[in-house]
Every structure is written in structure tokens, then in C-alpha cells.
Amino acid sequence: MRWVLLVATCLLAASTLAHEVRPAYLELTETAPAEFQVTWKQPLLGDLRLPIDPVFPEGCADVGTRRPEVARAALIERWTLACDADSLEGADIRIAGLSRTLTDVLVRVVSADGSVVSGVLKPDAASMSLAGPAGVAAPAYLLLGIEHLLFGFDHILFVVGLMFLVSGIWPLIKTVTAFTLAHSITLALSTLGVVRLSQQPVEVLIALSILFLAVELARGARADTSTAVRAPWIVAFAFGLLHGFGFAGALADIGLPKDAAAIALLLFNVGVEIGQLAIVAVVLALVWALRRTSVRVPRWIVRLPIYGIGTVSSYWAISRLAALG
Questions:
Q1: Which residue from 257, 53, 228, 241 is spatially nearest to 137, judged by alpha carbons?
Q2: CB 60: neighbour CB atoms within 10 A?
Q3: In this predicted model, what pLDDT tens digit does every residue of 268-321 receive, in sequence order?
Q4: Sequence-ordered list of residues with C-beta below 8 angstroms from that of 102, at least 6 positions apart, any chain
Q5: CA gap 159, 240 in Å, rounded
Q6: pLDDT mean over 115-126
Q7: Rounded to whole angstroms, how far apart are CA atoms 37 and 79?
Q8: Which of 139, 138, 133 is nearest to 263 (CA)?
Q9: In this predicted model, which residue has the larger pLDDT, 89 or 41?
Q10: Which residues pair with 30 in a beta bridge?
Q11: Predicted TM-score of the model (pTM)
């Protein structure tokens, strides 16, 4: 089983210098006939904006000036867009420059009658028709939740680390369920504004939670001396609360539709769970396959993944602490 951890650690270590792929968000809300309030939110890489911009159909023009602001490592611009009466019917909205990035864009258009057209634009599909589909963009928030987990390498390392603290299917089910329950609670509380925490300290604590697991694995703690081994579900629940705030930070970067916040939150959370279960399933499948082989692994190689997790999480903790200054 530790062979699997070795492979996962090597793959994740290559990604430690990469920024998490965060989506952009474009919303048009009709406030008067053929007049829209535009909100354009895109992630910042340090102090740099991505070279992407929304392009609207012919017959649409900005009214007044854009009002930019920076919040939560994102550039937010708001302005008014005026269009000819029929210019948006069946027309396309596209994002210029998107094909040269790794960023998705969630697009949402709300008409004066309350109807909604929404979708997700990707680098290989940078435009969408305003003819449909209509609705709350269920696939959009579901997909964004899955992508956030699969690109959230710190969350993946934590889940993999939990799997190596437990033995047996039932303890694994309890541990993963505790983690799921905990991060679902804080994801909802933070996203709905009930509890607010600064995102940067949360990211530091998430890195430290992974380092804690690495230390427990490295010292070979026994059930009579370590709560992490004796009751891993308690550790999973406690640190899951932290990871929920991390998920909430990603969702805050996107934004929730005001008229469908609950369903969008639910779909994002379900997407996170699908991504999490996919990781667990892949690891278990690899474990099953490797156990059917007769390969003998030297002990020093078996220990490498543990130190790999510790090294990666230490790097994250130090770099995130430095960012606080």
C-alpha cells in the first residue's frame, strides 16, 4: 500500500510550485430593457491579472467606466452594458485569451423576467450561446467542485495520509465520513456568511494538518500512544473543519447565484465529494493490484513516501507563512 503513497507523493511533489487553478466568473444581470449590470471576477497571480477579457455581441457597449477592486486574490470589475434590443438573442459571449490559460470561466446571465442562462467556458471552448441552456448551471457547480478537489493537491495529500493511518474497510469508512461531515459543515457556514475566517491563515493550518499526519506516520505511532492511530476519525473531523474553510475560499472566489445559493452550494459540495471518492477509489484499486504482485520493497523505499509528504507539507507551510507577511 505504501507503494501507492510513493507514486502519489512523487506526482504531487511536481505540482508544489504550481498555483491552484481557480475559475473566473462573469455575471450579467438585466436591470432595464437591454441594459445589464456586469460583474467580472478573475483570479490574480500575485499582482498580475490574467490576459483574459469578456467579449460581448455587436450592438453592446459599455456605459460609463469600470469600477475595479481587488479582493481575495481576485480582480473584480463592475460596469453597465447597454445593448440593442435584439443583439443578445441567440448571440454568443466569449472570453478572449482564454485558450492561452488553464482557467475556466463560469458565465451566468439573468434576464429581467428571472430566467437564467449559464455555463462553464474552458480554454478549448471559450464561447457559449445565450440561447441556452437555461437554469442554475447544475453541471457547472458540480464540475467546479470536482475540479477543485482534484486540483487541490493539499486536500488530496491529506486524504491519502488519512488512508494510511487506518486499516480495514470499516475504520476507513468512518474516517472518510468524519472528514466529509466536518468540511461540509464549515463549507456551508463560511459560504453563507455565518462564520468568517481569513483565508491565508487557514491555508497555513491546512498545510500543518498534512505535516501532522506525516509526523504520525514517520514515528510509527501505536494505538496506545496516539489519538491519530487509536481514533483517526477524530483527527479527520477536527482537520476536516479546517479544510472546509479552504473549500469555502475557492467557492467565494467564484461566487454563488443570489437566487440559487443553496442548490449551488449543495452541488459544489457534492462535486467535492465525488472528487474525494474518486481519489479513494483509485488508491484502493492500486493497493489491490499491487498486493497481487510478489514484489519485495526495501524498507527505506517504503519510508520515502512518508518523508515526501512531510517535505511537501513543510514547503507549503513555510511558503504560506511567508505570504502572510
A1: 257
A2: 20
A3: 888 888 888 888 888 888 878 777 776 676 766 767 777 888 898 999 899 888
A4: 21, 123
A5: 10
A6: 84
A7: 6
A8: 138
A9: 41
A10: 36
A11: 0.68
| pLDDT, the chain, mean | 80
Long-range contacts of 56-63 (CB under 8 A, 24+ apart): 56/81, 56/83, 56/93, 57/83, 57/87, 57/88, 57/91, 57/92, 57/93, 58/87, 59/83, 59/84, 59/86, 59/87, 60/84, 60/87, 60/88, 63/35
219 has pLDDT over 70:
yes
Three cell numbers at 48?
Answer: 498580475
| Residue whose C-alpha cell reads 474552458 in the numeric block | 122
Percent of the chain at pLDDT > 90 equals 15
